[in-house]
Design a protein that fits this description.
Layout lengths: L8 H21 L17 E7 L5 E5 L5 H8 L16 E5 L5 E5 L2 H6 L4 E2 L5 H5 L5 H15 L16 H7 L3 E2 L11
Parallel strand pairs: 1-3, 5-6
Antiparallel strand pairs: 1-2, 3-4
């Protein structure tokens, strides 16, 4: 039987250091002790644009990215030549097309916006749009319009509590469905 080689104290130290270095390398490569990093957020929010009026195929169109008017013009079968407007249409836009090929840009109705999961702009909505909000009703919708006309545009969603009949519970129910005209969602706490 053959005897095992004898290592000196220095050789044992080198072997231990190499082993520790390999273990650390493996741990670093495997992110040992750390939670895995989350995947980058994907913006899968579709863009909805409504076409109404003299288009051959009126309706709501869904896009992955905000479309230009000429794309919408071709898809909807609108009359005449598509206008060459380079601006992109925001989600929730409404394009009314006349028989002469003229168009008017606006915003979809409140009930339609809510159905598509899009928010209603508190500072541009009419009473009918606001009436579409859950548990609001025509009386409170009119009070909101009256308050806005008397005091000017809302600065934040939480300012709705200043409208008679809107308390914190009602505000909590409707705030997720509202935005302020800068396009950012605002929460009641802001």
């Amino acid at each position: 039987m053959k005897a095992l080689p004898q290592f000196s104290r220095a050789q044992h130290g080198v072997i231990l250091l190499l082993g520790a270095a390999l273990l650390l390398l493996w741990g670093w490569r495997a992110n040992f002790g750390q939670a895995p990093s989350p995947p980058p957020p994907l913006d899968l929010s579709p863009v909805f644009v409504e076409v109404a009026g003299a288009a051959g195929r009126p309706g709501v169109y869904q896009f992955e990215q905000p479309p230009v008017l000429s794309d919408l013009w071709r898809l909807s079968g609108a009359p005449g030549t598509a206008p060459s407007v380079p601006d992109r249409l925001a989600s929730g836009s409404r394009v009314g097309i006349g028989p002469d090929g003229r168009y008017q840009l606006g915003r979809m109705a409140g009930a339609q916006l809510l159905t598509l999961g899009l928010p209603i702009d508190l500072n541009t909505a009419n009473a009918e749009d606001l009436d579409a909000l859950p548990s609001l009703g025509p009386t409170l919708a009119k009070r909101i319009i009256d308050y806005r006309q008397k005091h000017g545009p809302f600065k934040k969603i939480a300012d709705l509590e200043k409208v008679p009949g809107i308390g914190s519970k009602k505000l909590e129910k409707i705030s997720a469905s509202l935005i302020i005209n800068n396009g950012d969602k605002d929460s009641p706490g802001k």
